[in-house]
Structure prediction request, 657 residues.
Amino acid sequence: MNAWAGVVARCDYTYAASCDDDLDIVQGDLIRCLEPVNSEWVRGSVDNRRGIFPKNFVSLTGRDAARVSFDYTGNEKEDANVRAGTRCIITKYLNRDWANVYVEKGKHGMIPLNHLSNIVIKPLEPTDPIHAVFNRIPKDIPDKHVSSKFEMVSNAPIKNDIESTDNCNSNESISSNSLNNSLNSSTSSSDRSASLNNEALLHNEKNAKKRINIITELLDTERKYCNDLDICLKVFFPPPTGHLASKFDHSSLFGNLRPLYNFSKRLNAELQSTAQKSVHNQLFGSCFLKFADELLESYSPFCKDCGDITESIAKYNEDPDVKKYFTSKIEEMKQLGSNEFSVISLLSKPGQRVMKYPLLVKELSSTTPSDHPDHQDLVLAHIRLMEIITSFNELKRTKELMEKYRTQDSSFTNKLSKISFHTLRKKSNRWSQSISRTVFTSSQIKDEEFETLHSQLKIQHKMVKQLITRCLSTITLMSEYLESFRYLVDTMKQIQDPAVPTSTVRTLINAVKVLSSLTQDFSIEMESKMISPLNILLPMFDGPFKLIAKREHKLLDFERLTAKYEKSSNATHEQKEEYSVAKGNYVALNSQLKQELPRFLRVSQSVLHDLLIVYGRVRHRLHSAFSQDISRSIRFKDDIKQRWRPQYVAVCEVRFS
Prediction:
């Protein structure tokens, strides 16, 4: 592990960070390795960015230094002109006989390998310019033919350092002696052509070896990845019980791993079976094409929520009990053969693995002969896998965009603080596009599916508001009934009509008490079973409506730039980029709303259905109690009704008819 401390590595495969502690690296990057994290991860830095990255995505690099044994004056423009004893750095091996070299004072060019002495591997220091490496090259290199060392040295070109020599002085003239003529005759154009003719054969041999190495890496890493997932499921399942179950959401962290393991298990079995066949029948491209749709289906939920998982783990680790649980489970995994060192690294592994599939397939296609039966399928598999990776990135980007707008502070103070020339111009453009849309309806971009969902959302929102209003009005009406009835009884007490028996007044007084009790029970039941749930449901519509408003804004931007882009025959790069961003924002919001609105509408409709049933039952019980308990108390005999004063009879008729 110490070999990875303080050295420089070259990125062989692009690695996209899946969590905050990861380091984004691109193929060809030179990475300064700071310290090893474990057997599979290294902490390093690129361009003042620090983080961890997997070892198998990079390779250690160095400088191949040598000394020129004989003076050489080239006949071609790209040849180097060097004298014997000059120290140089090999920047690229062209074939078994030729190499590009960098010499002191900024000169570089081609030179025959038989003109160079023994090679010395010198480590690269990224903070030093290339000429500073010469200070570490021994001046007394023993004479030994270089070509014997050809297979031992790296043949990767050092692109960055070659480009850095462009500003160096290359006009220095070097004298030559009589030995040059004899050496030049041995390296004539005919000899060079003969050596280059063998390059194709060497290239095929190297590709065959490289293909075997790539297949071996694919099989080994997939088997190890599948084994780690299996160990994880055995260790973390079943979920914890007791007080730990309430401290973290186990299903959100590990719930998506089961489908990933099932997919990896089937893919691993298929890859191992394919590798057992003859070289001509090893159809790895067909294998990946076969599993592409299943890969998309299995990994989509995980890749969509991977950012939330990282944040959740960081939050859960603040609890000592949860942190202790995670640590004990990781130790248990190590005892079973896993090399994971934390839950974050464990749950980051699926994201890293799925990103590596297209890289391995691309390398495999580049080393597979064009006449191999699997070559075309490998090319198609790489294209398909890149489409899947793009869809994963779009899922993650869409979710982040939705969360940004969903949690955005919409208060007046916040809006006022964001006012700037840019926001005013943006709003002005949207107003202009809105007016243009009204005048020229053909410029509108419509989505019938979204419009239908939006209409259903507005209907349900209106139903919730109307139901709340109806419940409140029913409670108010019951209170008015009670007050009217009390007023009637009080009036009858004041009249003192001897024709009205005392028992009748007493019965009405009891009826008031019954009605008061019914009204109170009805109000409590409506509040708890109807109004409270509806008041909880109503604000839930704010999120979708806020996102729909943002979608409308992005649609106006997209329509405006579409019209502008179509009119412009020679759009600049900035205009194309602006159009692409506007289109991406609109498509992301529109597609996400079409996915989430149906689920929201189904839940809302189910809640409304249940509440309407409750409302009907409460009203039915009220009417039953009213007709049974109250009606008997307010039945008047005809003779009493005839002698009752006309105004109060009218009140009875209106209130209780």
